[in-house]
């Protein structure tokens, strides 16, 4: 019979072997299986790398949603840490939406960087030329947004200049969101369609930094970000939206916008008092709103089926 002490030692040995195996199999880029596990609440189509494939039409509609509306929907669902503000932008008046590719950077540690380079080049087939800060760019596809945690480093923390900026835009038709800095913002501003949300710009080159992961969870200021999240970036801040919530967020925010438009119009017409619009609506106001939607002077942002389903599944 095996003693309890022997059983404990065997268990400890198994755990140690398991941890050792995991350590040696650690990848720079997350596997599709890992990303699928992280985003298991998404039930739709996925990219080959495992990230949720939110539709282009939803990304386009999301541009018209305000930061406040998006933030409110997420807060109501218990997602309280998805916003980061206080950014510098190249084009402040331009909104950007897209699907997240994450990258994490840390202060340079030579032995760890050697392991990263060996793993990335020899086992994952990444480019041996140039810096590892090009690796996240190599995997971008149309509609992706490169989101990097550069731990707020400005001088010697410039993750891209205009050369890499051109490559990013050519692959993704989008820009970047860096909790860090960029170099040659003048050159970046000449890339038509490219935009960047960053914490600063500096003429220095990247030094004493190393890439540690691609498409793993990262922190961007106040926000926790997963690969495949959807970005809503405006001059008022950036919201990182879990993929499984984005369609509901868009339709809910669109309805909220229409309710506000209706309420403002009726207040200007002096049909209702401010207190009536600001409090729970009476059946009379609800009916008036639905009639107003039926005769909306323009194209509604959602389909009739989406509108009907929204009111079918929700209480006012």
From TrEMBL:
Residues in the signal sequence: 1-25
Record Pfam families: RraA-like
Entries under InterPro entries matching the protein: RraA/RraA-like (IPR005493), RraA/RraA-like_sf (IPR036704)
Keywords, comma-separated and alphabetical = Signal
Name this polypeptide is given: RraA family protein
Source organism per entry reads Algoriphagus aestuariicola
């Amino acid at each position: 019979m095996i003693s309890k002490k022997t059983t404990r030692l065997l268990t400890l040995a198994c755990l140690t072997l398991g941890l050792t195996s995991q350590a040696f199999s650690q990848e720079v880029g997350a596997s599709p299986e890992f990303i699928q596990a992280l985003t298991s609440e998404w039930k739709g189509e996925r990219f080959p790398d495992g990230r949720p494939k939110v539709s282009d039409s939803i990304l386009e509609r999301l541009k018209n949603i305000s930061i406040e509306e998006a933030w409110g929907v997420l807060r109501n669902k218990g997602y309280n840490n998805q916003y980061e503000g206080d950014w510098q932008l190249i084009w402040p008046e331009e909104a950007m939406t897209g699907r997240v590719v994450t990258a994490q950077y840390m202060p340079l540690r030579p032995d760890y960087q050697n392991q990263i380079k060996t793993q990335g080049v020899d086992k994952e087939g990444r480019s041996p030329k140039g810096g590892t800060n090009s690796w996240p760019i190599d995997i971008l596809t149309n509609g992706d947004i490169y989101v990097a945690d550069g731990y707020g480093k400005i001088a010697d923390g410039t993750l891209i200049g205009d050369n890499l900026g051109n490559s990013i835009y050519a692959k993704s038709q989008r820009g970047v969101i860096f909790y860090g800095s960029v170099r040659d913002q003048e050159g970046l501003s000449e890339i038509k369609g490219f935009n960047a949300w960053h914490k600063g710009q500096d003429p220095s080159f990247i030094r004493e930094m190393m890439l540690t992961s691609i498409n793993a969870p990262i922190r961007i200021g106040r926000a926790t970000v997963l690969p495949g999240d959807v970005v809503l970036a405006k001059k008022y801040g950036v919201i990182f939206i879990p993929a499984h919530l984005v369609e509901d967020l868009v339709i809910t925010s669109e309805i909220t916008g229409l309710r506000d438009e209706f309420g403002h119009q009726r207040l200007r017409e002096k049909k209702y008092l401010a207190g009536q619009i600001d409090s729970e609506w009476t059946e009379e106001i609800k009916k008036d709103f639905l009639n107003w939607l039926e005769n909306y002077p323009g194209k509604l942002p959602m389909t009739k089926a989406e509108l009907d389903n929204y009111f079918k599944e929700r209480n006012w």
